[in-house]
Amino acid sequence: MSDISENWCTIESDPGVFTSLLDAFGVKNVEVSEIWSLDDDNISKIVLEFGRVYGLIFLFKWNDESMNKCDNTKRKSTISNNESPEGLFYAKQIAHNACATQAILSVLLNSQNNLAENSGLVLGPLLSSFKNVTSSFTPHLKGEAIAANQEIREAHNRFCRNKPFFFRSKKRSNALSDEDIFHFIAYVPHIDGRVYELDGLQSGPIVVGTYSENRESVPNMKDMNWLIVARSAIQKRIRMYSKTEIKFNLLAIVKDKRCEIQVRLDEITNSELNCTDKCEMVSLLKAKLMEENDKRVYWRRENERRNHNYLPFIIELIKVLAESGKLPELIQDVNDYLVEQRRLDK
């Protein structure tokens, strides 16, 4: 199992990467959007724009001091497997570097149990089968099942950045010792009225607060209630770091915007509006739909660039520069720049 669990790459915290990963899992009618601010206006905008927020994925820098603070404050809120509510999917993280996919699965495999009505989200054959098979597993066995699932692992590894240089394990270990380590966790609402933090490195699910779906009178704004609870937990975690720390990222798994556009387009097309109004509205909706499709095309191209091996191009470029006599001058310019940067850093 150790060989299998270690064969996972790190992937970038990016909406295009995560949305493409959802597609690779076979999930339908969802996408990932980045949340730039935790203020009320920005969260309201996300809910209004997409209509449904299934869960949040939070990226933060792993820091021993902040982790110890978190552990001390969360012990009372962590629940055991026996206390876990029915239908809550929680898995221990067994595979190294799999925390991004683990956080995504924590949202997706809890989403259908958390919704009172059909939201349009379709897990697809891969995740539906995985959820059914592992539903009675303990959190540790669920983590083992994720680590050992070849289809999930291969989908995850599609989004590994190309690394043309390889080092011996000892050198690699020393090189990574000073690098920042990041971790993904998930926040999800549950039908029991509580919001859970799902972190595979903890001893169990963590209750971060309670919410009520009945407080919001506007139907498509009811996700605001649980998001406010999750926001408070995220803000508490951020405050445990020094004020100079800015390396955080927050992503939301939301309803695919194209779904609502297509529904509205069908309604307008089949309506009895006069021709002028109908044509204007149809043109506007088609433009929005094209914009969303273009966004997916852009994401796909960016993912291809992430996986592309640019080393042969770089080698040929260096050869051409050397043959033209421009390489020494460029090397000197780079060295001068680095010297100036060190001076400024002091």
Element string (H = helix, E = strand): HHEHEHHHHHHEEEHEHHHH
End-to-end Cα distance, whole Å, is: 47 Å
Largest sheet: 6 strands, antiparallel
**What's the domain count?**
3
Determine the number of helices (DSSP H or I, runs of at least 4 residues). 14
- The CATH class of the largest domain, by name, is Alpha Beta
Per the CATH scheme, the topology name of the largest domain is Ubiquitin C-terminal Hydrolase UCH-l3
Q: Which structural category fits the helices and strands? A: alpha+beta
Rg from C-alpha positions?
A: 23 Å
CATH superfamily annotation of the largest domain: Peptidase C12, ubiquitin carboxyl-terminal hydrolase
- Considering DSSP H and I runs of 4 or more, what fraction of the residues is helical? 40-55%
Strand coverage percent: 5-15%
Name of the CATH architecture of the largest domain? 3-Layer(aba) Sandwich
Globular, elongated, flat, extended or rod-shaped: what is the shape?
Answer: globular
Mean pLDDT: 84
Poorly predicted parts = 167-178
Instruction: Record the strand order, biggest sheet.
Output: 1-6-2-3-4-5
Number of DSSP strand runs: 6
